Amino acid sequence: MTFILGLTGSIGMGKSATAGFFREAGVPVYDADASVHELYRGEGAPLIEAAFPGVVHEGVVDRQELGRRVLDDRAALKRLEDIVHPLVRQAETRFLKDAAGASAPLAVLDIPLLFETGGERRCDAVLVVSAPAAVQKQRVLARPGMTEERFAAILAKQMPDSDKRARAHWVVDTSRGFEEARRGVLGVIRACSGRPGRVAAMRLSQSS
Predict the structure, then answer these.
(1) Is 137 labelled a binding residue?
(2) Model pTM?
(3) pLDDT of 68-104, one tens digit each?
(4) Facing residues of 106 across strands?
(5) Which of 50, 84, 103 is the last residue of a domain?
(6) Which of 109, 99, 98, 91 has the alpha carbon at shortest distance from 39?
(7) Where does ATP bind (predicted)?
(8) Which CATH number covers residue 190?
(9) Domain containing residue 63
(10) Domains identified in the chain, total number
(11) Among 80, 81, 111, 125, which residue carries the largest CB count within 10 Å?
């Protein structure tokens, strides 16, 4: 039986790099963000264009334009989520079916808003990636087009890092360097693989 590990963390915490360590170790990883990108180029584009006319160009959703439409508009964001979330869940279901079919002992669901959307209920355990707030801010503001105002708006829609860490089975602190984070991931893989019954009751922290 495949053990399902949720991987999450707030913006700028190093989740993508951490997911890469799982892939390096041969663990199948479902990337929810990548799934959304595919939907924006495929079956989701006409549905989003119908709800937000003018955001699709040459069959592809303009993410920046769409972001401007929904970032400060809760009703618009809800309309977008009602379109995207069911399609993403279908892709996730296909991924888990494939992992089970391949007899993978462990599969990772890389989902940015895992706790915010109740996704942890679909997982056997959760790993949260974290870093000090100053490191997080430095990373995010270094991104092209990012502003302090936009960063604050994104954070306002995410569960506080402290709450995520409190609800996690494991926490990997990515501010300590790639090798330290990789060691943390390998420790989680060892704990999860082959021992799902015990892991569900564990409360460990790789950052302590």
Answers:
(1) no
(2) 0.86
(3) 899 778 899 999 999 999 999 999 999 999 999 999 9
(4) 3
(5) 103
(6) 91
(7) 12-17
(8) 3.40.50.300
(9) 32-103
(10) 2
(11) 111
